[in-house]
Design brief:
Helices cover 45% and strands 14% of the residues. By secondary structure, the chain is α/β, with parallel strands linked by helices. The chain folds into two domains: 2-135, Rossmann fold (3-Layer(aba) Sandwich); 139-164 and 195-255 and 269-282, UDP-galactose 4-epimerase, domain 1 (Alpha-Beta Complex). A seven-stranded parallel β-sheet has the order 3-2-1-4-5-6-8, sandwiched between helices. The chain has a two-stranded parallel sheet with strand order 7-9. Helix 1 (10-21) links the parallel strand 1 and strand 2 (26-30). Helix 1 (10-21) crosses helix 7 and helix 4 runs parallel beside helix 5. The protein is globular and about 55 Å long. The relative contact order is 0.13. The chain binds NADP nicotinamide-adenine-dinucleotide phosphate (NAP).
């Protein structure tokens, strides 16, 4: 039995579907049972619980051998995910797979980077065999820019001409599904990228080719991006994290392609494939 925390999120939903397709027994942890309805598939059971409620985690861990951990961007993330690690220890879980992010460390200037590193440290200290999955920027982040791509044929970011090896979140789920259903991945840390690093101008050209309409990348000053993200309701601390991250991308410091997705799953989707598959979401 595999427990999936974060099962109603973007990666989690895809992971539950891929595990079910492999015939695995899955327990999906959900806060809101109404959201669990969409996860229904043979072999999938729903367990109502909250990472902030250790008793609900103890119930969800009964009979579980492997655990997948992810949760939302949250300043309490290390406490919430620490609760999962402690419940896994109490339940005698044999393998934890944690979704973090590329380039995290305890002294990262980026809050989320420090929080992921803290949970990785807790997992290492727990003695439970683990695998760390560290993705680059998701290709699907561009879906958040679909409104302006539809209205203006453009998207706006402060990433200059920095190249980023964006990864398709379907591939992140595929790596997680493989790691959770086979052996030999214990003690490993995989950096998950796509097969090529692209500047946003190149991503825009590829999107344009897929939807058959011009798409332009417009570089904006960080302060304009800050105002736009605050206006969208993104919490101020996370806006500052995102701006620091985009400066790392803009400077070209996160452009290295990793072979790990292909090594684990046998293939890594290109941005062209993402653009083709998601073209309808970008069409007016
Ligand atoms: N986006 C990127 O480009 C990128 C790149 C690298 C790494 N990452 C990492 O990816 C992770 C986010 O993945 P995602 O986009 O798939 O997440 P997501 O769509 O935001 O989903 C988060 C999931 O966590 C669940 N959750 C949050 N708090 C919970 C709690 N207290 N108890 C139980 N469940 C809880 C949510 O449940 P509800 O449905 O109930 O809210 C949801 O299922 C983050 O750790 C981020 O750092 C993202």
């Amino acid at each position: 039995m595999i427990l999936v925390a974060g099962s109603t999120g973007k990666v989690g939903r895809e992971l539950v579907a891929q595990l079910a397709k492999k015939g695995a027994l899955v327990r999906a942890l959900v806060r809101d049972p109404a959201k669990g309805v969409a996860l229904a598939a043979p072999g999938v059971e729903i367990s109502r619980g909250d990472l902030g409620d250790p008793a609900s985690l103890d119930a969800a861990m009964r009979g579980v051998e492997r655990v997948f951990v992810l949760s939302s961007v949250d300043q309490q993330q290390a406490v919430l995910q620490g609760n999962v690690v402690q419940a896994a220890q109490r339940a005698g879980v044999r393998h934890i797979v944690k979704l973090g992010a590329a380039g995290t460390s305890l002294d990262s200037p980026i809050t989320v980077g420090r929080l992921h590193a803290q949970t990785e440290k807790d997992i290492e200290a727990s003695g439970i065999p683990y695998t760390f999955l560290k993705p680059a920027l998701f290709m699907q982040f561009l879906l958040g820019h679909a409104p302006t791509i539809k209205s203006d044929g453009a998207f706006y970011m402060p990433m200059r001409d920095g190249k980023v090896p964006m990864v398709d979140l379907r591939d992140i789920a595929a790596v997680a599904a493989t790691v959770l259903t086979s052996s030999g991945h214990e003690g490993k840390s995989y950096t998950l990228t796509g097969p090529e690093a692209l500047a946003m101008t190149e991503a825009a050209q590829k999107l344009a080719a897929a939807i058959g309409r011009p798409v332009k990348y417009v570089d904006v000053p960080p302060d304009a991006a800050r105002k736009a993200m605050i206006a969208q309701g993104i919490p101020a601390w996370f806006v500052e994290d995102l701006l620091k991250l985009m400066e790392v991308f803009a400077a070209g410091y996160a452009a290295t392609v990793s072979p790990d997705v292909k090594n684990v799953t046998g293939r890594a989707r290109t941005f062209d494939a993402f653009a083709r598959d998601f073209a309808p979401a970008f069409k007016a």
